[in-house]
Description:
- Helices cover 39% and strands 15% of the residues.
- The protein contains 15 helices and 15 strands.
- The longest helix has 19 residues, at 408-426.
- The chain is globular.
Amino acid sequence: MPEARNPEARDPEPRNPEPRNPALEPRNPAPDPRQPAAAAETRTPPPRLRGPGGRPLRVAHLTTVDMSLHLLLATELKVNLEAGFETYGISAPGPYVDQLTAIGVRHEPLHNLTRAWQPRADAAAARELLAVLDRLRPDVLHTHNPKTGVLGRVLGRLAHVPVVVNTCHGLWAQAHDPLAKRAFVLGAEAFAARFSHAELYQNGEDRRTLARAVPARRSRVVGNGVDLTRFATDPGDRARTRARLRAEIGVGPEELLVGGVGRRVAEKGIGEYAEAARALAGKARFVWIGPDDPDKPDAHGAESGVEFLGTRADMPAVYAALDVFVLPSYREGFSRSGMEAAAGGLPMVLSDIRGCREIGTHDEHLLLTPPGDARALTSALDRLLTEPGLRERLGAAARHRATAHFDQRAVARVSLETYAAVARAKGLPWTVD
């Protein structure tokens, strides 16, 4: 397999970047995802921002579906609540609303919102969103996901929301995509970015892709993170958890278990994973954990060799049960499952794409293979299955990197600091406790 290049060597920043506006700079910026994190800062309470007269700020996070609010943003929502905000989640309703409500988030449903672009439904969802914003009158609208990122930024400004911030979780266009798709995606992002006050990127490649449309003075790379406290490091606890789950799914103590995590869709590389599983049959068991996607039932078909376990709520136990983690995805913003696997100390094979390269360096923290290349994926998995020393080395390095770089509370703090920076620049009468 060709040697994967170090992501630090890719697409360097311009030598003469656009001057930054100090008023929009967070006073305590988050660590760069490739630099050591300031662990002590993540343990300090988040800044408590107050609106006029000292009232709590109303902060609304907009996503397409409630699954994103719960699975991608739960820690950020908790940090908002700890900061004293009235915290709202706006999305299509679904099975995760009760869990959001249980932690104190107020959910506002958009019944016409869909993940696919559907002009009639989108127009109805836009009317719903404007009505919600008019009723809530949030101080901050923080948008996420491609579709709601576009709708939310435009409608948030039209609704006169004081602070509109967007997080890019990954551009839905790759270099190998058709020109029409790339033009649509990049054009929509460039247009919507004109309406936000700040743009946050989970990876530097996406920021560089949109550098001509989004001034550097109001954008920054914040990385991504997970709740590291969920992943047990005590060897005894891990061994018991591992044994319990492996017994539940019928995996023997000496049997090697390879697994991937994500939606059951073709863009996660499930077809290539199944091909590798068939080629390596007898060396390990191969499983996939994650929900079906009714909008994209395109991964069902030639999947023999992989056992699909569906959605599970005990993901730390799942990672403890695995021996090797795999994610042969075609597109990632900044792979959450990759970060979780790293936090669980697993050796990994990921696609050599943006959003996966940020998880670590090839042959130092993980192995990278070209997306869509089943032969290379098979070769990399075979290395890990036959070289226990390599599994141990990469797993330990991945855990160390996750501890240093992937704390989601640090990322959430940057969002709060960004809200404050925009407020300072606009002269809003906010205070910081």
